[in-house]
Amino acid sequence: MLAVQVINWSQLELFTGLDAVQLTPVIASARRHVYPAGSFLFREGEASAGYFALSDGMVRLYRANPEGRLHTLSLLRAPAAFNEVAAVDGGPNPLNALAVTDCVAFTLSHGSLRALMSSESVVMGNALKILAHINRDTLERLEDMTFRTIPGRLAKLFLHQSAYGQHICEAPSHLSQEDMASILGTTREVVGRALRSLMTAGLLRKQGRYYAAADLDGLLTLAETNELPQKLTCVKK
Amino acid sequence: MLAVQVINWSQLELFTGLDAVQLTPVIASARRHVYPAGSFLFREGEASAGYFALSDGMVRLYRANPEGRLHTLSLLRAPAAFNEVAAVDGGPNPLNALAVTDCVAFTLSHGSLRALMSSESVVMGNALKILAHINRDTLERLEDMTFRTIPGRLAKLFLHQSAYGQHICEAPSHLSQEDMASILGTTREVVGRALRSLMTAGLLRKQGRYYAAADLDGLLTLAETNELPQKLTCVKK
DNA sequence: CTTCAAATCCAACAAAAGTTCCAGACACAC
DNA sequence: GTGTGTCTGGAACTTTTGTTGGATTTGAAG
Q1: How far is A224 from chain B (nearest CA, A)?
Q2: ipTM, 2 decimals?
Q3: For labelling, which of A33, A117, B76, B99 has a CA lying 20 to 30 Å from the CA of A20?
Q4: Gap from A150 CA to D9 C1', in Å?
Q5: Residue B71 and residue A143: Cβ atoms within 8 Å?
C-alpha cells in the first residue's frame, strides 16, 4: 500500500476514446479517497456521491431490507466503476457501497461529470451506453427473481460465463454460502440445501472445500426451466 | 379514428427543450404505424425496434417465462414513450410490447435517434436522464420482488401515488386480478387471496365490483414491513 | 497442538406462494 | 330471454422458501 495508487482512466468505459489531452480535465477534477475495510463508500438514499472508479480493493454494492437481509447487486474488484446512475442524474445513490477490503477510489462529483460530458460529447455517449447496459442487467436480475427458483438462480450463478456480468468478481466456488445467498436474494440455509441437491443430482461436484460445475448442460437446463434434467437411462440402443 | 393521429413531440421527455425548428428533423425521421388490438408492436429479443411514441391506444410491456406466465412491467396509455434502452444502444428489445387496444405510434429507428442525439446535444442529455430514471424504477421493482411479500406488493400497488410510477396507467381498482397478478409477478389466485385478506383486515373495501383503499396508513405499513398493522384496541386511556 | 471463530451440514418445522379445481357472477352477443 | 366467455370467490392441496437450532468441520491464531 505504499505505492501510490493510480488508475488508467482511458480504460474505464466512461472515458474510452479520449486522448491524453482530453483526459487532463478528468484527472484534474477527480479526487482520491481511501476507505478501510468495513467502511461505507456511500449509502443508499444519501445525496449523490458521484462517479466512483475503484483503483484498489473490493466493494460490495447492495440493498438491505429492514430485517437486515442483504441483496448484493455487485461484488467488484478493482479496476471497476460504479454509481453511474447517481453520478449522471445527481439523484440519491441507489445502493449501499461497502468496502470489503481496504479500498482506494477516485471520484467525480455529479457537477464535474456534467461539465465533462458537455465539453466532451464522447463521454456523454459513453455514459449513455453504460446506462443502457446497466438497465439490461437490472432487468435480467428482475426476471431471475420473478421467474427462477433458487436452484435455478444458483445454477445460473455457477454457469457464470458472465451470467451475472461483471457484477460478481468471484467465481461462485470461492464465495461463501452467505455471499451466494445475498447475491441470489435468499438465505444461507436455502443456498446450502440447493447446493446439496445440485450435487446429488450430479450438476456440481465438490473439489476440496468448494463446489465446481460438473454438468454444464444440466446446469443450463436447470437455469432455464427450473427443472432438474432427466437422466437418460439408456442413451443408445 | 378518422381524425389523423398526431403527437406533441415537444412534450415527450426525450425532446423537451427543443424549439419548432429543432423539432423539424425529428418529425421528418419519424414513421407512423397502426397496430390492431392484440398485435405486437415488437418482441423481446428482436433487433431494436427503435424509439416508440404512442399517440393513441394502450400498450402492455411485459416479459414471459417458458410456461407462459407474464410479468407486466408497464401498462401505458397514450401519450407515452417506451423502448428507450434499445433505441439508444441499438441492441435487441428488452421487452415485449403488445397492443391492448388499437394503437397508433410514431417510431424513430436507432440510427435516426443517434443522428438526432449527435446533432442536438439536448436530446442526448434528455436520453441520459430518461435512462437513469428507468434504471431507478427497475431497481425498485427488483427490490420489491426480493424483499416484499405479495400482500406487501399489492398494498404498494394500491397506494399507487406513482408507487409504480407512470408505468401503470390504471388505478388498481380498475385492473382485473389477472392484470394485477402479472404486474406483481404472481398468479391470479394468489392475488385473489391477498385481496380478500386485505379486505378482512380493513385495508381495502369493496366499492361495487372493485376494491378501493380504505386505510392508507395500514397499506403503507404493510408495504414497508410485510406485516399487517396491529389494530390498536385502546387508542387512548 | 490447542483453541476460537467462522463456515458448513443437516433435520424439522413454519410460512408463503403456486396449483388445481369448481361454482357463481357478470357482460355481451345472438 | 339464452348461451358464451371472462372475471371472480373460495377451498384443498403441493411445492418452495424461510426459520430455528444444534452438531460438525475448517482455518487461522496463539
Answers
A1: 8
A2: 0.93
A3: A33
A4: 32
A5: yes
